[in-house]
Amino acid sequence: MEIQKIIDSLTEIERKVLNAVNKFNAFEEIQDSTKLSEVEVMRALQWLQNKKVIDLNENIKELVELDVNGKNYVKKGLPERIFLEAVKNKTLTLGEVKSKTGLDKNEINICIGTLRKKAAIDVKKDKELSFSINEQGKKLLAKESLEEQFLKKKFPLDLSLLKPEEKFAYEELKKRKNILKKTIKKLKYANLTSLGKKLLKQGIKTKNVIEKLSLKEIKSGKWKNKSFRRYDVSINVPRISGGKRHFTKQAVDYIKKIWIELGFKEMTGPLVQTSFWDLDALFVPQDHPARDVQDTFYIKDPAKGRIDNKQVLKRVKATHENGWTTGSLGWQCEWSTERAKENLLRTHNTVLSARTISELKKQDLPVKFFSVAKVFRNETLDWKHLFEFYQVEGIVVDPDVTFRNLLGYLTEFYKKMGYPKVRIKPGHFPYTEPSAEVSVFHPVRKEWVELGGSGVFRPEVVKPLLGIDIPVLAWGQGMGRIISEYWEINDIRELYKNDLKQLREMKIWLR
Hints:
Arc Repressor Mutant, subunit A; alpha+beta; 22 helices; BirA Bifunctional Protein, domain 2; single chain
């Protein structure tokens, strides 16, 4: 950039600081010279550095500053001087010294020790200690001590630059409580580059430069005698990361919106469920491997819950034992109510479907429900398995629906999720018949990826819950696999690792 263009682009605070850097290097000196705030000086220095006009350097130094007592003694004097002033005309007892000086017990003790060490007072002990000044003490009163001279200096002080007598005073004062404190400080220094020297040689005006044009200046015509600051839109500026929702939450909200637009109502429920609703109501046998602790998170306290719907409980029990009136033989074994009461973290959102169906009346039909919520599996954590994840669940309870309606709902959902090619093929799932596996064609991998299961609930599930056997379309899809492609995530653990850099850089969900 040309010299004049750089000069024209300088802000008012940059102009002031640049002129100051020509005379001073230290940050504090630049601030004192310009009368700008610390933030303004720092901002101006960074902008000038971006323009390659100055170089900024840091130097770490040990500094000494006044502490609470030090600041107080600067105003009223050191306690030993106050002590000597009190006894310079007459001998005083310890009580009289305390009363006359207002010094506390600790300060009195320090005064006695310090003044005796300097042979400045005489101490007598009768019924009570008494103190009087001697010739050495009078000499001390007549001039400032090294400690007093040290406290009058301009703080903070660089420890490495102290003279021998100053180091002595520092060592003496630091033995005492809260007079001095040592700090480590980063000192900033600015130096002109060759470009900066050229700018100053050409001349930097600090007046008659307009950054903002006000209505008053337009009306008065004052702008005619001033220069407008040139704006450099190519200069480096700090990146600002604004607040936003977690990217998986953005996807959850979008998925919910899809189902609501398709006429579905949302199902909700507690994370902790009884085995009855999570497994038994879905016709999962009580000796099924999925009930083992290796697959399911059971709750220790409280270990068991209640089953309030006694009518549904009676039907489910009968269905498991002998098929009830569903046309099934059931599992032909005794069903345990106590085992059904065991509390667990829900293993799927189908538990919400079961509870929702059990609360429906015949006059409520037809109805459609969905949920996008967390489920829990006792899985080994790896690149494609999580023990806590979102599941997309849905049911359609309608006497007139068919399997073809299920295909239509799923195809429409995946199209809206960015997968135009959907494949549904026969599958097997415990509580649906017929059952189907749903796969989509991955646009990057160029292959079919299975995303979840679906089907029509078996009579052994529907009739005990609803009281009648009608078609209920159902599906359960793992959300992690559905949304990973959008963010080019190959390891499903990255969805929830909460890396701050990742969260800042992750693109917004715009599908």
